[in-house]
From TrEMBL:
It comes from Ilex paraguariensis (yerba mate). Keywords: Membrane, Transmembrane, Transmembrane helix. InterPro entries: CAAD_dom (IPR025564), CURT1 (IPR033344). It is a multi-pass membrane protein. It is found in: Membrane. Pfam families: CAAD. GO terms for cellular component: membrane. Residues 87-171 form the Cyanobacterial aminoacyl-tRNA synthetase CAAD domain. This is Cyanobacterial aminoacyl-tRNA synthetase CAAD domain-containing protein. The chain crosses the membrane at residues 100-122, 128-146. Its main location: membrane. The keyword Transmembrane helix applies.
Length: 178
């Protein structure tokens, strides 16, 4: 059983309307088969863009000539200097004795962070669990505020406790922090 397919040509009129080849053979009531195409935006003016690029290039050359005349480094060379943080990181990395252990710890930290993000997203997809955890968080926040922030002696005790933990981490005594 052979089937024959016939393709109908499509034509575009000057008013940017696509007309089906069958539509021209049918009556005027079948004009609902026309599709209007959107008009294209005008292209950008090339002369203004070119003038801006030329002006910027001339300013760049002028800066470089002035920099060379005064004995300074050109703008391209000055821009390639590393910021201070990279210099500090490089000095710190050079001081590290066991680079293999540090690299392994960083890789393990990245894997742990990736795994914990996956675990949190899996828990978040479970029904009811995110809502229950949100209620637990709101309840704990209210309890903490009631217990530590309402009365002045409780606030003072909390501040002293935070300063003590901060001092333990930094390695200073409580008297030096005040």
């Amino acid at each position: 059983m052979a089937s024959t397919t016939s393709s109908t040509p499509l034509s575009i009129s000057s008013s940017s309307t696509l007309i089906d080849g069958k539509a021209s053979r049918q009556s005027a009531s079948a004009s609902s088969q026309c599709v209007t195409l959107p008009t294209l935006p005008l292209p950008p003016v090339q002369s203004q863009n070119r003038a801006w690029k030329t002006t910027a290039y001339c300013r760049k050359i002028t800066r470089n000539v002035v920099a060379m005349a005064t004995g300074e480094a050109p703008a391209e060379v000055a821009a390639t200097e590393l910021p201070e943080i990279f210099k500090t990181l490089q000095e710190t990395w050079d001081k590290v004795e066991d680079k293999y252990a540090v690299t392994s710890l960083v890789a393990a930290g990245v894997v742990a962070l990736w795994g914990s993000a996956g675990l949190i997203s899996a828990i978040d997809r479970l029904p009811l669990v995110p809502g229950v955890l949100e209620l637990v968080g709101i309840g704990y926040t209210g309890w903490f505020a009631y217990r530590n922030l309402i009365l002045k002696p409780d606030r003072d005790a909390l501040i002293e406790k935070v300063k003590g933990v901060y001092g333990d981490i930094i390695g200073t005594s409580k008297k030096e922090i005040n």
